[in-house]
Automatic annotation (TrEMBL):
Residue ranges crossing the lipid bilayer per the database entry: none
SUPFAM superfamilies associated with the record: GroES-like, NAD(P)-binding Rossmann-fold domains
Protein's recorded name: GroES-like protein
GO MF term (any one): oxidoreductase activity, acting on NAD(P)H
Domain Enoyl reductase (ER): 14-384
Length: 387
């Protein structure tokens, strides 16, 4: 007899709050596993979909189970699965919101979630489910913007990290990752460092030590009036592989840095490309903060085109990180899960970050967690434990 499942459903478009109720237990298909969730992470996208789901994900069929960041224990494996066995602890990204899925069984906000094998990594014994649940969508967004061929196309991360520079006589390679204390930024700093790049980041001063602990060589105050000059100075003698930006106006700052380098040190290699993962430092409940959250998830909203147009006038390309092919087993995100994340966490080279802020235990806590996430957190990620 299958286990009894429950879920926090979004019953219809633009509906709040989520409704906790019974859900079918769905066995895994080929290449899938079923995970009994021990904890789930909360992303801005989860509550944004409640407001503008039909605009951002018109393919969704309601009632639906949202939620992407999960960690727990494998209870069943499908045909062809070789990476996991029943009893293994894992962390990963569920894909109910993906156009190629659209299945409630693959949503994270429930007790038992069907997961794609290649979107899951083993959780080492020293990492709790609550800690592991902070990854998911943040990890995927960072990986896509850093490594996908349509964005920065950096070398993939390895265990141990690649040498920098890889060849004698070449300039050390550097990349700018703003917003290093955010959920996405915490992953991006670590991934870029593991790929063999020197990472220059930004945060508030209270988070300088935290971001450096993730692997950034320099961290600057994002509100500093000398930020552009500070970044240009820190990049002296280095190849700039581009920028991955999070935070209001961060793309403009990085464009100014690139323009300054091209003017003063034209012989130093500078890639004129900014992967815009977005975000806003303002009140997330305000219109600008709300749109910044949508931009964080790759929303291609016309009212947000102004920054991209302005920076394009300098000859610098700015491109929103819009994840496509989330369920592609050969995507850069999938390779992070299958080739890198498990060994890197086991070795302590990659740590789940930021620290979880656990709201409580049970599916009925997810609505409270969504409300807390709207208010914004610093160097934390909202997490709900599950029984």
């Amino acid at each position: 007899m299958p286990p009894k499942n429950q879920a926090a459903w979004i019953p219809a478009k633009k509906t709040r709050p989520l409704k906790v109720g019974d859900a079918p237990y769905t066995p895994p298909g080929p290449g899938q596993i079923v995970v009994k969730n021990g904890a789930v992470g909360i992303n801005p996208f989860d509550w944004v979909l409640q407001y503008v789901g039909p605009m951002m994900a018109p393919h969704l069929v309601y009632p639906m189970v949202l939620g992407t960041d999960v960690a727990g224990t494998v209870v069943e494996v499908g045909p062809g699965v070789t990476r996991f066995r029943v009893g293994d602890r894992v962390t990963g990204s569920s894909v109910s919101i993906a156009k190629e899925s659209g299945q409630a069984a693959e949503g994270g906000f429930q007790l038992y979630t069907v997961m794609r094998e290649y979107m899951v990594a083993p959780t080492p014994a020293h990492v709790t489910d609550e800690q592991a649940a902070v990854l998911g969508l943040g990890l995927g967004t960072a990986a896509y913007g850093l490594f996908h061929k349509d964005y920065l196309a950096l070398d993939m991360p390895q265990v141990p990290p690649l040498r920098n520079p890889r060849s004698p006589g070449k300039h050390p390679r550097a990349v700018i990752v703003t917003g290093g204390a955010s959920s996405v930024g915490s992953c991006a700093v670590q991934l870029a460092a593991s790929a063999g790049y020197e990472v220059l980041s930004t945060s508030s001063p209270k988070n300088f030590a935290y971001v450096k602990g993730l692997g950034a060589s320099h961290v600057f105050d994002y509100n500093s009036k000398t930020l552009v000059a500070d970044l240009v100075r820190a990049l002296e003698g280095r190849e700039l592989a581009g920028a991955f930006t999070i935070g209001a106006g961060a793309d403009q700052v990085c464009a100014a840095v690139m323009k300054e380098r091209l003017s003063k040190t034209p012989k130093l290699p500078t890639r004129k490309f900014i992967a815009l993962a977005g975000g806003s430092g303002r009140d997330p409940k305000s219109l600008e903060g709300f749109m910044g959250t949508i931009r964080l998830m790759g929303g291609m909203m016309s009212m947000m085109g102004k920054n991209a147009v302005n920076t394009m006038l300098t000859g610098i390309e700015v491109k929103f990180v819009l994840i496509r092919g989330l369920v592609d087993p050969e995507s850069c995100v999938s390779h992070i899960y299958t080739d890198f994340l498990g060994p890197a966490m086991a070795e302590g080279q990659f740590v789940p970050a930021p620290e979880p802020q656990v709201v409580g235990r049970g599916l009925d806590k997810i609505n409270e967690a969504l409300e807390l996430q709207k208010k914004g957190v610093s160097a934390k990620k909202i997490v709900v434990s599950l029984p």
